[in-house]
Write a structure and sequence with these properties.
The structure is a single chain. With 222 residues, the protein is of the alpha/beta class. The protein folds into two domains: 6-16 and 94-219, HAD superfamily/HAD-like (Rossmann fold), CATH 3.40.50.1000; 20-90. Helix content is 48%, strand content 12%. It is elongated. 31% of the residues are buried.
Length: 222
Amino acid sequence: MMRYQAIIFDMGDIFFDASIWRKWLTEYLQNLGVSIDYPSLCQKWEAKLIEVYLGRREYWERLREFLFELRLKASEIEQMVAASKSKAEEIENRTLFDGVAETLNKLKQMGVKLAVLSDTESGKARVRERLARLDIEQYFDVVETSIDIGYVKPQPEAYAAVLQRLASDTHSTIFVGHEKEELQGAMDFGLTTVAFNCNKQIPATHYIKSFPELIKVVCQKP
């Protein structure tokens, strides 16, 4: 008998490596003489993206503002935006982490309801297209994005919107993520949390090193 009946997944760095573009951006900036490391870039850039995820600002214009705040010259900014677009197109076709497709298939066969909750400038139709390119779209009962629901993780309304569509409750639902704030927000909302692709300094109910370990979490006894 399964302890949990539904799972809500974050998308990037859960199904595939979403760090490639940001690591490239960090190195590009360092080569221009900007004093910034990868964790600092992620923190600063993610804060800038909230308005993008809610449809209030355009992604590449936000990048221009971000680069301006780092005191790059206008010519450097335009060159970097062009290079960033090219790099983003280059890595659009992702590779799944080991065991993702097999685990999702197994969970679906077990009758677990599966959902994706993504903070993104794209709507749910675009996210489903990305999942289809990865050949895992068919496993998801629900796909929701910040741009569609008007909330971003870790706002409780974001988790609530997906939970309502799943027709599930907090006691029987898991949230799988990797970012500290999103996992903490899910825990505060009452969801059981599973941290994947992160260190144990991040708050979570369970930690898994490989994706297939998720099966054991779902099936464990209360």
